[in-house]
User: Fold this.
Amino acid sequence: MATYKSFEDLPVWQSARKVAVQVYRTTSKGKLKDDYGLKSQIQRSAVSVSSNTNPS
Assistant:
């Protein structure tokens, strides 16, 4: 079993962060960039995944 020194070392956290970055990129262009309510909700949801990763 792997030993992690920080939650940032967890593969699941790294994947969630990549998803959040992609969500921000996607919602910053096209029609979504003008729909502030939906854009904000999607972005907060994506960030929430990595914020709630619990290594224990």
